[in-house]
UniProtKB/TrEMBL annotation:
UniProt topology in membrane: Single-pass membrane protein
Keyword Metal-binding annotated: yes
Required cofactor names: heme
Name of the featured protein: Ent-kaurenoic acid oxidase
GO biological processes: brassinosteroid biosynthetic process; brassinosteroid homeostasis; gibberellin biosynthetic process; sterol metabolic process
One Pfam family here: p450
Transmembrane segments: none
Species for this entry: Gossypium anomalum
Pathway the protein acts in: Hormone biosynthesis; Plant hormone biosynthesis; gibberellin biosynthesis
Functional summary from the UniProt entry: Catalyzes three successive oxidations of ent-kaurenoic acid giving gibberellin 12 (GA12), a key step in gibberellins (GAs) biosynthesis. GAs, which are involved many processes, including stem elongation, play a central role in plant development.
Length: 495
């Protein structure tokens, strides 16, 4: 009898805990689903997780493990291959879409969906950046800035500067010994994008700004918790510093333009300050600063990570490495003796290298998802996406789908031979009207670096088995600690 009391007490505690868990698991259901009335029965399968945090713990747990795709895998195993699931992500009731057809609908239907990025992302990148403005504003700003970023003339102008920096930097790195390859790649790509936008090459300023961008980027897809110790808090401080720097640059440039001795710098800032819409109106300072902040962040992070992984993958597969290298040697040998350096035409002749870059973009999937918000109740595949709910277009599930890409986790540039990706099956830069506006510039920068690296250098990793981290972007835990070794086997001056 003496044992019965504690046993019943334990049973009671377990029952209370079980009941509490049952209640907590239904809080989000009660708050967000019951208000839909009978329409809730048309919601996609899934669950909204715990109060406030929703499914974020399982998301973070998966992406901090060796199997990030276990997050979506858990939805598939519990609810089947529906390709559309309800969840609670980044503080909002959401729908995750993982199949090309549904992704195509969400990304291209501007009447039904608008950008739905988390509060943290919009606050950090800027309310006047492309991710924070309406469809009409986006269309206006994209039209005004597109030629300055991805236009044929602009790309041709950027090539000599990019190439000069790549050549001199690789030579410098080859004499450094051990270095964090990714960290130094990011500094290089940041220097390039800074020059394109601001004609700035101050090492001290750029080092400081790149550090702030690192803090900013870690908070872009975090929970909007503005408390010391959280990524969002640190990222907000970084944004304030970046905005202050850019505002001072804009003010200085405006003052320079008022003087008789002003000389046009031919950089992106000049272009943004001069551009006028059909009404003759120029961009406001807030628009200029948020556009610069957005481009500078995306323009160096994605290029650096993709370049690093392309080199790692190629060296892991000597057959593909030799094919890529042979193409670059051929391009140089066929060059006229009067030409010095790469041309845009030569870069567009790098057909195999383009496949290497595309395969790297697919396999790494730098941006694992983009966010939209339903402007009205929308029906997709018989399921309801309620007005105001967020939609996460899950790129990883598409790029790593074995039905679309056989052996999807295998690096194989040759899979692109005589193959054209069907609509919404290859989305490294998104799709629709909000396709990443800097995609051509990013691929140009990657191609120029790979051209010179393949001809004359190799990567000697210190920890080739280094653990891979997936947040905020896929990278080796040691940031690819390595030595850059010069081969001395080919010169770009040879023919």
């Amino acid at each position: 009898m003496d044992m019965m009391g504690p046993m019943w007490m334990m049973i009671a505690v377990l029952a209370i805990l079980g009941g509490l868990k049952w209640v907590l698991r239904r809080v989000n259901w009660w708050v967000y689903e019951t208000q839909l009335g009978d329409k809730r029965h048309a919601l996609p399968p899934g669950d909204l997780g715990w109060p406030f945090i929703g499914n974020m713990w399982s998301f973070l747990r998966a992406f901090r493990s060796n199997d990030p795709d276990s997050f979506i895998g858990s939805f598939v195993s519990r609810f089947g291959h529906t390709g559309i699931y309800k969840a609670f992500m980044f503080g909002n009731p959401s729908v995750i879409v993982t199949m090309p057809e549904t992704c195509k609908r969400v990304l291209n239907d501007d009447d039904a969906f608008k950008p739905g990025w988390p509060t943290s992302t919009v606050e950090l990148i800027g309310k006047k950046s492309f991710i924070g403005i309406s469809y009409d504003e986006h269309k206006r700003l994209r039209h005004l800035t597109a030629a300055s970023i991805n236009g044929h003339e602009a790309l041709s102008v950027y090539i000599p500067y990019i190439e000069e920096n790549v050549v001199s930097t690789l030579e410098k790195w080859s004499e450094m010994g051990e270095m964090e390859f990714l960290t130094h790649l990011r500094m290089l790509t940041f220097r390039i994008i800074m020059f394109i936008f601001l004609s700035s090459e101050s090492q001290e300023v750029m080092a400081a700004l790149e550090k702030e961008y690192t803090d900013l980027n870690h908070g872009v897809r975090s929970m909007a918790i503005n408390v010391p110790g959280f990524a969002y808090y640190k990222a907000l401080k970084a944004r304030k510093k970046l905005v202050a720097v850019f505002q001072s640059v804009v003010n200085e440039r405006r003052n320079e333009r008022k003087t008789k001795k002003w000389l046009k710098k031919e950089d992106m800032l000049d272009a943004l300050m001069e551009v006028k819409d059909e009404k003759g109106e120029t961009l406001q300072d807030e628009e200029i600063i948020d556009i610069m902040l957005m481009y500078l962040n995306a323009g160096h992070e994605s290029s650096a990570h993709t370049t690093m992984w392309a080199i790692i993958f190629l060296q892991q597969h000597p057959h593909f490495l030799q094919k890529a290298k042979a193409e670059q040697e051929r391009i140089v040998k066929e060059r006229s003796t009067t030409k010095k350096g790469l041309t845009l035409m030569e870069i567009r002749e790098m057909k195999y290298l383009s496949k290497v870059i595309d395969e790297t973009l697919r396999l790494v999937t730098f941006s694992l998802t983009v966010f939209r918000e339903a402007l009205t109740d929308v029906s997709i595949n018989g399921y309801l996406i309620p007005k105001g709910w967020k939609i996460l277009v899950w790129f990883r599930s598409i790029h790593l789908n074995p039905q679309i890409y056989p052996n999807p986790k295998e690096f194989n540039p040759s899979r692109w031979d005589d193959y054209t990706a069907k609509a919404s099956t290859f989305l490294p830069f998104g799709a629709g009207s909000r396709l990443c506006p800097g995609n051509d510039l990013a691929k140009l920068e990657i191609a120029i670096f790979l051209h010179h690296f393949l001809l004359n250098y190799e990567l000697d990793r210190v920890n080739p088995e280094s653990r891979v981290r997936y947040l905020p972007h896929t990278r080796p835990a040691d940031n690819c600690l390595a030595r850059i070794k010069r081969r001395n086997t080919f010169s770009t001056q040879e023919r």
